[in-house]
Amino acid sequence: MQNQTTVSQKAQERFEQVRAYLEAHRALFSTQGSVVATWRVWQGRKLGPYFRLAFREGRRQCSLYLGRCQWLAEQVRGLLGRIQEHVRWRRQSFRLQREARAALRKAKAQLKAIMAIYGVRMKGFEFRGIARAFPLTCPVVGWRSPAAEKIRKNVNLLTKTAGSSRQQENTEK
To answer: Is residue 118 helix, strand or coil?
Structure first.
């Protein structure tokens, strides 16, 4: 029982040393570093896991030995995660921005293809040629425009001629 207490005291002391090292090199660990578990083989037996904090200083790979204590490895992982949190959020927000822009480009391309059928073009976020494509429904042109009047007259002529031909058919019967 006493041995477990001394192990946790040793682990606590080691954690304080590692925390001081991480705080002293906060700029380095804000963008890199991870806790790695490794095993080794001795006389045909697999031993481990042995934990270490892996990072790079310049081009050189370095590590800080943590030992076999699972508790210490978890504590260092948590501390490292808190130090690196703002970088992860920034990377995630940039990734989401890229995805949103790609989705917008795709949606605009689809909309451009659909509107091209009606003769409408896009310039940025504006539509050009709506008045020619949809003269009766276009708020810019309105119902009183010359184009709308021309269409209305043509529609009236068609309905009158269709109506008169129906009357003739009815009278002939």
So the answer is: coil
